Each structure stands twice: as C-alpha cells, then as structure tokens.
Amino acid sequence: MRVYFEKLFKGSRDNYLLQLKEKLAEETKTFIVTANPEAFMFGEQDPEMNALLLDEETSVVADGIGIVKAAAMLDIEVAERIPGVDIAEQLMIYGNELGKSIFLLGSKQEVIDAMCKVMAEKYPNLKVAGAINGYVPDKDAAFEEIKKAAPDIVLVALGIPAQEKLIYKHLKDFNKGIFVGVGGSLDVLSGSKERAPEFFINHNLEWAYRIAKEPKRLKRFYNSHVKFIFKVQKEKRG
Ligand code: UDP
Fold first, then answer.
1. Does a structural domain hold residue 139?
2. Would the CB of 193 count as within 6 Å of ligand 1?
3. Residue 151 in domain
4. What is the total count of domains within the chain?
5. pTM for the complete prediction?
6. Which of 27, 87, 145, 209 counts the most CB atoms within 10 A of its CB?
7. How far is the CA of 159 from the centre of ligand 1 (A)?
8. Arithmetic mean of pLDDT, 102-114
C-alpha cells in the first residue's frame, strides 16, 4: 500500500489547483484520482484499480484527512487534503475564465439538471458539451458521446471505483481533457445535497457529518476506513 502513498501529490492545495489551471489552458490530458481510504483498499484487491493508481500518468491527491494522516504515519509528508468537490468547483471556475467546455457523467437526472442550471447562472462562459445521468445502463456508450464532444473538462460522478475504472478504460482515446472522478460532488455543487457545515470541514470531521446524515454509510466506513487503519499500522511495522 505504501506505493500508493508515494504517488500522492505532496504540495499545497493552491499549488495543485494552479497547476491544474495551466493544464486546462494548455489542453494537457490529465486524469485525477481524489483518493480516500476506500480507493487504496480497492487498489489492493482489484488489479485494474491498482494499475490506474500506479500509472505514472495518473495524478493522485488526498481527498480526505484519513489519507493525509495515514501518509504521515508512513513518514510521507502530504501538505493538506485536496477534496474532490473543491477540484470540481475550481475546474468550473477556471473553465468559465478560460471559456472551456465541460461534460458531466453521473448522478441522478435531477442533480444533473440542477447542476446545469447552477453552471448557466454562475459560469456563463463555461460551455456544457453534454450531461448524462449515472443511471443509464450502458456507461461505455455514454463515454462514446464524450469522445464525440471532445470536452476540456470531464467530471464523472459514479462513486469509487466505478468512475475511475470507466475513465481509465477510455482515456487512451482522448487527446485532451481533465478527467476527474468526483463521487458525490455534483450532489453538493448543484445544491441538491448540503455539504457539511464549515465547523465540520475545518475540524476535519466532514466524514462524521456524512455518516450522521446518512447512517447507511457506517458499514461502508467500517469496511474501508477501519480496516484501512489496521493495514497502515501493519505497513508501518514493516
Ligand atoms: N451514482 C450514479 N450511478 C450509480 C451509482 C451512483 O450516478 O449507479 C452517483 C450517485 O448519484 C452520487 C455519486 O454517484 O451522485 C456517488 O456518490 P457518493 O456520495 O456515494 O460518493 P462519495 O463522494 O462518497 O465517493
């Protein structure tokens, strides 16, 4: 598991986002994985997830505090978390500034509709190249639509690891584009679901807020995060 931590972007959030703006301006193809403990746990079990995490073209950032703290346990210093929701929002802001295009794949149709409305209001220069909900039966066919549109930004909101695996499968067919698996970010950015209050975000307790709001997340949390902590401790002992 240490190899995944070594791949993490170690610098600041601001620095990462600025680099991203340059990549967007220069049309440098980029695939971002916003890693949480689940992502690394999947990597250990799933050869495809393992390959995409270790691919030198993949940019891996620490989505949550769990990854930052676990990295510190392994003496790997990561400056701070860079949440996927921040990356998604910042890409919309940069896309608006630079007059770029965006394609959304994933989340419920009503979330997609609300998101398109928000983007039209807040980011009028950002062109929506297409938007497909995440409940269509054939996600590969949806990706063929994305290829035809050749957008500058592609946000895929299907949850980990489906979103990363789908992007990775099709990435070679693109010449440009910033591709990110954004999980539940569109639910939040569209205003369909509230993000945790600032207190929780600032105290690194966003995960606790999400469990309190959606208790069904507890099992998922146990399966990934608690097992993850044991794994990292074992790795530390060598
Ligand atoms: N989702 C989807 N199709 C599916 C399953 C999930 O589009 O078949 C969407 C779901 O609507 C949500 C996102 O994927 O917008 C995953 O959200 P979740 O909060 O589970 O992701 P997290 O941020 O925890 O990774």
1. yes
2. no
3. yes
4. 1
5. 0.95
6. 87
7. 4
8. 98
